[in-house]
Amino acid sequence: MEGRAGKPIRCRAAVSRKPGEPLTIEEVMVDPPMPHEVRIRVICTSLCHSDITFWKMKDPPACFPRILGHEAIGIVESIGENVVEVSVGDTVIPTFMSDCGDCLDCKSKKSNLCSKLPFKVSPWMSRYESSRFKDLNGEVLYHFLFVSSFSEYTVVDVANVVKVDPLLPPNRACLLSCGVSTGVGAAWRTAGVEPGSTVAIFGLGSIGLAVAEGARICGATKIIGVDVNPEKFEIGKKFGVTDFIQAGNDEVKTPSQIINEMTDGGADYCFECVGMASLVHEAYASSRKGWGKTVVLGVDRPGSQLNISSHEVLHSGKSLMGSLFGGLKAKSDIPVLLKKYADKELQLDEFVTHEVSFEDINKAFDLLIRGECLRCVIWMKK
Length: 382
Ligand SMILES: [Zn+2]
Ligand SMILES: [Zn+2]
Description:
Blueprint: E1 9-15, E2 24-30, E3 37-46, H1 49-56, E4 71-79, E5 91-94, H2 104-107, E6 133-135, E7 140-141, E8 153-157, E9 161-163, H3 170-173, H4 179-191, E10 198-202, H5 206-217, E11 222-227, H6 232-237, E12 243-246, H7 255-262, E13 269-272, H8 277-286, E14 293-296, H9 310-316, E15 319-322, H10 330-342, E16 352-357, H11 361-369, E17 375-379
Parallel strand pairs: 10-11, 10-13, 11-12, 13-14, 14-15, 16-17
Antiparallel strand pairs: 1-2, 2-6, 3-4, 3-8, 3-17, 4-5, 5-9, 6-7
Helix pairs in contact: 4-5, 7-8
């Protein structure tokens, strides 16, 4: 390690060169961190659906060649100027959401949407609009979600790292980088689910299951899962799902009609985790008039529109809100969730269905695409 600070590092990365084609493990050069940046040695990373979305995508904001990956944990190898928050050797979780701690939004308790380094699907680092990666021919490799963790080393802005307890198992802690935090946070922070409340979750993929887990921890007594696949109920039970509706199975009643009957007037909290405008409407219709809250977590096609009448809004008194990263402030909330894991309140083990070595990263893609896995952890070295 000694002597590499300030110099480029040559290491292996899994590069996405063409849409939908297997990643290639190549030697790349990783520049030293600029001011306010840190260079991290990645311990392990896991695969999230957004990686697959941008790997398959042919048009902008997709771009190639790119180093994907945004759920990870690593150790700080070197730091740029003006970095005081973390030191060399610290264990950190990188996050795609910045938490600069300095802007109006970061200072407010009401928001996790940093306005100084706002979230965007950019090919660059967040602060300088430039890349720290090159291949051995000198060609620039693009970043992904300010993290790019499919590399033995990566550079991340200090606003996008959270210092964590080094004794936690890395193949569990890394899940809090994106997916599990998003779902659990949506129930805990965005919705503020209370003990005894009723919850409906549309889509029981890993985000929906994480919402169930969050709702379970918050003390919800009825957690209704809605999915087209009936096998999701068995999986969902492990995360607190108490009731199940197979979408499209009832030829007479819609899921919202069934939920209204089951809850005597609508669920307190509804979550859309698929990314379909029609399902947002269905979730909204499932929530209780007067106080029902619907939280949108799913990522729909750009430009897709909601169609809710203003009368419906006026007469129902319901809320509809979006939630990026579960409304969590990364630096303060991730350590709270890790403490809940250490105290055996929050389940993380159950999300990890597969683990592979870095050489087998393309297997992780196959597993997730075939729907055979919730989270596949990829170990950089084993
Ligand atoms: Zn900020
Ligand atoms: Zn993700």
